[in-house]
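Researcher: Next entry in the queue.
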Amino acid sequence: MIYHTSSRNSTAAFSIPARYTDLEGPGTIRTGRRMHWWVTSMAPNMRAKANRSGINSKTEIRKLWNAGDSKKWLNLLPYLELPREVFEDETEAVHYWLNNPHTDPWKLQEGVKEITVPNLDIIGWYDHCNGDLLLNRKMMSEAKSETARQGSRTIIGPWSHAGRGKRRYGNIDFGPNAVLDSVALEIRWFDYWLKGKQNGIDKTAPLRIFVMGDNQWRDEQHWPLKRATDKIFYLTSNSHANTPSGDGQLIASKPKQCGDDHFIYDPNNPVPLLHGPALFTIPTDQKPLAKRKDILVYQTGILEKRIEVTGNPVVELFASSSAPETDFFVRLIDVAPDGIQRDVSLGMVRARYRNGLDKPSLITPGKVIKYTIRMNPTSNAFLPGHRLRLDITSSDFPNYDRNHNTASNQNADATLKTARQTIHHGGVYATRIVLPQVPSQ
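Model: Structure for this entry, 441 residues:
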């Protein structure tokens, strides 16, 4: 998805994931965006070009989608039996992917070694296409020419994929510093690399990040930040961590006693996406989910000191399930004194792919398994007066497809079953979150 077409000297681009699995997730399907994109854009375009019967007007089909068709398409199962009108001429290719979710047809990071031109990448922390910043990291370390390695630049703001340069999303406001005129920046980029104008773009830092919470920009030389150290919080409760009003806590010391919390995951009633009709990942206040019993909530006390988290948080999760296959989602949240509960980073695991996409293995119901969940990259300062929170659940629909909780190939089988999920903490099952903490300057 190149924003400006490549030239022989330079490129500017939207964020592009290196691996297809970074875009879709670990053996999962980003149902909302995929279905919306195919039904309202790709399919009608293919019908129009082939002069084929059916609705070929994007405007008309999007009106139908917004009028209620979205529920029909998003909930239709199984995916391998979707009518041809969804994928049209790409049906066979999509079916191959659905039958082989471990494959990666892109592997763009492998082609970086042939790149000789510098790249300008403007990315958002909430951009579903930031791809763990792998492509950007590879460009700065493995590009073929020194010009590409030294000249490439990455800018990461508090934005979505479709909202570069914005300061506000609903009731989330990152302040005036978040505003960026990306077009002016790109013109400056091309003026230097194509026209030779000495405008100082070559003197800027390789990485410029927006630290949320502080709502300030900061220049960096490397990603991940070399000065980051592990800040660890352990989960604990009196077995009533359901909802923010429960007794789930994040504490600095490892609990000696084993404990656990339970919730019921019903794929017929999944935790809903809060990102709005566009189905793009955006910063979102999690308050509307506060009464759901299928979300476990663990949080610190009110912070006395600033804690900056910049990098990829990791959750080491000890969990068991009554099902032979299921999902676990973890969400890092910044709870502000005014009550806003802004999501900071998300991570998930599909149980059968816990050992790798090429090593699928079902789980034994009731057996405690350790899952290591690497969360999305972020930069957020949790300020004094705030709380740091971790939510755990088993769905985020239609951001991700629902796990059916069955041993079957869920792309071919529509059966949905309920699962009883248990999160273990303390003792030998000390579930914890490891945060890349950057010291305050």
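Model: The longest strand covers residues 341-350.
Researcher: Noted, moving on.
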